[in-house]
Design goal:
Structural class: mainly alpha
Radius of gyration: 30 Å
Largest sheet: 3 strands, antiparallel
Order of helices and strands: HHHHEHHEHHHHEHEHHEEHEHEHHEHHHH
Strand content: under 5%
Low-confidence stretches: 1-31, 118-131, 213-219, 229-237, 460-464, 510-577
Number of strands: 9
Distance between the termini: 52 Å
Mean pLDDT: 74
Helix content: 40-55%
Length: 577
């Protein structure tokens, strides 16, 4: 990050210290100001101190924080090991963004604003449309970077602390929604709740998570009368999400009560819950919400795959618009997010890219959006966990990849000759090693897992804010035009026909002179070196013996062997070099 951007970010957030905080209650808590630089520093440093002291529970580290740090470390460790580092063992800014983005995408299905991994250059959003909340991750990174005397990169402890604070900020902000749910139910924060009241509050909270702008107030009315409705025959007319939210909150309350059985009195007629317990439960719902709502994404993906006749991960644009699922995203939107493929005569929609687009996200917070789960992240996490280096040999990668499977595969499948050839070609491009975070390998993953891994783009514009407020919809005329099109498609002999050889290494600041070898590569290189030394020693002994014999024969015969004679040439030619 350059000095100008750093200074601009700090100045941008600094004035918020003088702004009055909205009072709690009503809906004003939903528009609270972004934290100031000093507030971030005050919250970040104690977390960092706990992390660097080992993260164990102590007087300064609560059990909750210790548990949070432990879980974050476990999730980040293998990915951190797989990233390129400088001589201090730290990672650069682009790698920090990758780590944080991958963590939240994998663990929660959240897309952190300001860290969207939308193109292969991993650029930080910094245009005029950026909200101050989106600059919070960048300010955190700068605060952590400046604490090092040399300011070169961040440590594992730095990144862990950054993730922990982001989780806390998101959790704290979601408490505003919980307070709104209490207020809507005409409940006081200090009063205890019956299980029925808690259920109603948490169902309203889930609806607020999905619709934070409250554009559909009637859903809260439905939740308010949910018990009466769900006991009636009118349940079929309810919004499908409200039904699911009701069941989701009920399941979590049931699990919570079961966990607390040993701590409750057996003589209590009815269990009551405090605001703190409601808050703890809302945290659980928030952390699980991404996976809960991903059921809709899975159904959408299955529908798109049914339109793909070749199971290639692509759907013709005409079929996309003709689908009964009413896909209405415009060509401009699809192109901007990297979901439109124009390599053939008929435009096609890339399923994986479309699934990760902002039209399938729920803008739930100033800090993040809840989107469809990125199914490529678990695949990459498994590769990173086994490679534990920025690069790997094709042989090792093929062993790993041959055992991977995805949600659209019944089990690990055999890799085609084309895929094996392309992986070897990537290695040839990089002196025998495959950078696992480069564009070429991302492209390879797309062709190997076309329904899960997106096609990598150089300049995709998939920020959630860019295409908000339904601006991504195509007009009826545009949709009809594509439905009526009858263009002849040129079928390629192989998916690899659309392969491009441009390489980008977004997590490497310039091409390193020496890439860290993966263990298999190092072992094989070392083995070849030792073998060569063994052969060389035999050769030298052979040569020394031959030369000694020749000299003795020369002395005994009183003659010499002319330099360059046939005898000398034959002797040299016999040496096994």
């Amino acid at each position: 990050m350059n000095t100008f951007v750093t200074t601009s970010l700090l100045l941008l957030l600094a004035p918020t210290c003088c702004q009055a905080r909205p009072a709690e209650g009503a809906l004003r808590g939903l528009s609270a100001s972004a934290p100031t630089v000093e507030e971030l520093r005050a919250q970040l440093m104690p977390i960092l101190k706990s992390e660097e002291s080992g993260g164990s529970s102590s007087e300064e580290t609560s059990p909750e924080l210790a548990r949070q740090l432990f879980n974050i470390e476990a999730s980040l460790a293998s990915t951190f090991q797989s990233l390129p580092k400088n001589s201090h063992g730290r990672v650069a800014s682009a790698s920090v963004h990758y780590l944080v983005h991958s963590y939240f995408a994998k663990e929660h299905g959240w897309r952190i604003k300001g860290l969207e991994a939308t193109n292969m250059s991993m650029e930080l959003i910094s245009d005029n449309g950026t909200h101050v909340f989106q600059e919070v991750p960048a300010v955190m990174e700068e605060l952590l970077r400046l604490r090092h005397s040399d300011t070169f990169g961040l440590t594992f402890a730095d990144v862990t602390a950054m993730v922990a604070l982001l989780e806390r900020l998101i959790s704290n902000q979601s408490m505003d929604l919980l307070k709104v749910a209490f207020e809507y139910r005409s409940l006081e924060l200090g009063q205890t709740l019956t299980q029925v009241e808690l259920h109603d509050v948490l169902t309203s909270y889930l609806i607020l998570l999905r619709r934070p702008l409250l554009e559909r107030w009637e859903h809260l009315d439905w939740a308010h009368h949910s018990r009466r409705y769900f006991e009636s025959a009118d349940a079929q007319t309810l919004d499908d999400f409200v039904v699911k939210a009701y069941g989701f909150s009920q399941d979590n309350i049931g699990n919570f009560v079961y966990e607390q059985i040993s701590q409750s009195s057996p003589f209590t007629d009815e269990r009551h819950f405090s605001f703190e317990e409601a808050s703890s439960l809302s945290d659980r719902l928030l952390n699980q919400y991404g996976r809960f709502q991903n059921e809709e994404c899975s159904e959408m993906k299955a529908s798109l795959m049914s339109l793909s006749t070749s199971e290639s991960g692509y759907v013709h644009l005409r079929d996309f618009y003709r689908s009964q699922d009413d896909f209405t995203e415009s060509v401009a939107y699809l192109s901007d997010i990297g979901a439109l493929d124009n390599s053939s005569s008929r435009p096609r929609v890339r399923i994986a890219n479309y699934m990760l687009g902002p039209s399938n996200c729920i803008s739930s917070s100033q800090y993040y959006a809840i989107c469809c789960l990125d199914e490529c992240k678990p695949l990459m996490a498994e590769i990173e966990g086994l490679v534990r280096a920025p690069v790997a040999t094709p042989t090792r990668l093929l062993r790993i990849l041959g055992n991977l499977s995805s949600s659209s595969m019944s089990g690990p499948g055999e890799l085609s000759k084309d895929l094996v050839g392309k992986l070897n070609a990537i290695a040839d491009h990089h002196d025998g090693q495959v950078p696992i975070h480069g564009r070429l390998f991302a492209q390879w993953m797309h062709f190997a897992f076309p329904n899960e891994c997106p096609y990598p783009q150089f300049h995709a514009k998939s920020q959630v804010e860019q295409w908000g407020d339904d601006h991504y919809h195509a007009s009826k005329e545009e949709i009809e035009e594509h439905i009526q099109s009858e263009m002849v498609d040129v079928v390629a002999s192989s998916p690899m026909a659309y392969w491009t050889d441009e390489e980008v290494l977004p997590l490497m600041e310039g091409r390193p002179s020496k890439l860290k070898l993966d263990p298999d590569s190092f072992a094989s290189t070392l083995g070849r070196g030792l073998a060569f030394l063994g052969v060389a020693s035999v050769v030298l002994r052979f040569a020394y013996s031959a030369i000694s014999d020749a000299l003795r024969a020369s002395r005994s015969s009183g003659s010499t062997v002319p330099r360059g004679s046939a005898r000398e040439k034959v002797d040299v030619a016999m040496l096994p070099f």
